[in-house]
Amino acid sequence: PDVIIVVAYGLFLPKVMLDLPPLGCLNLHPSLLPRHRGPSPVASAILSGDPNTGVTVICLDEGMDTGPIIAQRVTAIGADEDGTALTARLFRVGSELLVETLPEWEVGRIDAMPQNDSSATMTMLLKREDGEIYWDQNADYIARQVRAYQPWPGVFTRWRGKLLKIVDAAATEHTADAVPGRVIALSSGSLDIATADGTLEIKRLQIEGARILDATEFVRGHPDIVGSILESKNARSNS
């Protein structure tokens, strides 16, 4: 082949494969490398509160997203954009960038630029337990967590021994002098959950074994959740 394109591929290509195509093996990565190298760049950008992210085309080497940059495009992260929507949009942007870049790369009009390793950040493979909410975090962080961890691993807490998945939520200016994790009824019939700093307004949620409900509908069916304290299974480490 003249060129090999790798997108969302979870294995390292061996050197014999990297050396095979005359135009190299190119990778489309959904972040602004060298920021957010590794397996979860979209979730990490949202969770970090980055205002912008983007896509990067690199020439693969034997490292983890360390190859020289061929092309890059920046895009703003929407205020309500979650991991599912942002991932889909980034790969649409990335496919357009590839179509524009490949002809220029083929004729030698692009010089690959080495990455600045001193500016690199590394992401980790997300695990199910990463989605657990710790209410001693602030509301802004938890709201970003809800957005970042869609569709995997999802974000959850616990109530009466069952998992309670938070599907859609936002940090609000509502004030509450309450223990973190305390569920507070709103006059609208919806609910807030107190955090260490600020409150999280719950828009949609799902109790284990049931369907996703709007918060107002959930409260009608489970009025006893108001006033309860949602707790984590394990204490959060300080690491």
Question: Features of this protein?
Answer:
alpha+beta; single chain; six-stranded antiparallel beta sheet
Low-confidence stretches: none
Helix fraction, binned, reads: 10-25%
* Overall SS class: alpha+beta
> What is the 3D shape?
elongated
Order of helices and strands: EHEHEEHHEEEEEEH
Taking the sheet with the most strands, its summary is: 6 strands, antiparallel
Separation, N- and C-terminal Cα atoms: 46 Å
The number of helical elements comes to 5
Q: Which whole number gives the mean pLDDT?
A: 94
Residue share in β-strands:
15-25%
In total, the number of strands is 10
Radius of gyration: 21 Å
Describe this entry's structure for a reader:
By secondary structure, this protein is of the alpha+beta class. It has 5 helices and 10 strands; from the N terminus they run E-H-E-H-E-E-H-H-E-E-E-E-E-E-H. The strands form 2 sheets. Strands 5, 6, 7, 8, 9 and 10 form a 6-stranded antiparallel β-sheet that branches. A hairpin with a 4-residue loop joins strand 8 (191-194) and strand 9. The longest helix is centred in the middle third of the chain and has 24 residues, at 83-106. The radius of gyration is 21 Å and the shape is elongated. The termini are far apart.
